[in-house]
Amino acid sequence: MAFVVTENCIKCRFTDCVDVCPVDCFHVGPNFLVIDPDECIDCTLCEPECPANAIFAEDELPEGQEIFIQLNAELSKKWPVITEVQDPLSDADDWNGKADKLALLEK
Ligand code: SF4
Ligand code: F3S
Predict the structure, then answer these.
(1) How many domains does the chain have?
(2) What is the tens place of the pLDDT at every residue in 36-75?
(3) Is 85:18 a contact under the CB 8 Å cutoff?
(4) Within a domain: residue 33?
(5) Whose C-alpha lies nearest to ligand 1, atom 8?
(6) Residue 32 within a domain
């Protein structure tokens, strides 16, 4: 199993999560972060750190978020590792909680 970053991270990317990960398994894209499922050790530390509540255990994903299992696996092989907190994206607070952000994911 692994933890998964889901839709509400898109266009927010607060990055608080990367600060606590003991195995540096977060990877960063233009407007989203993903977790490498092959590196995640299920420590649970990142889940409560996300201001957007976007991180879930793979077997506790909210309905409709299942596609993010594949997206985290796929994009983590393509995007670079991120280990330090960055500023959130502009308007992150406005995008936090907005529905239907998947179409806005930049790969
Ligand atoms: Fe990293 Fe732990 Fe979160 Fe997995 S559960 S991404 S190992 S902080
Ligand atoms: Fe995204 Fe939450 Fe991390 S918004 S960058 S999963 S802190």
Answers:
(1) 1
(2) 999 999 999 999 999 999 999 999 999 999 999 999 999 9
(3) yes
(4) yes
(5) 21
(6) yes
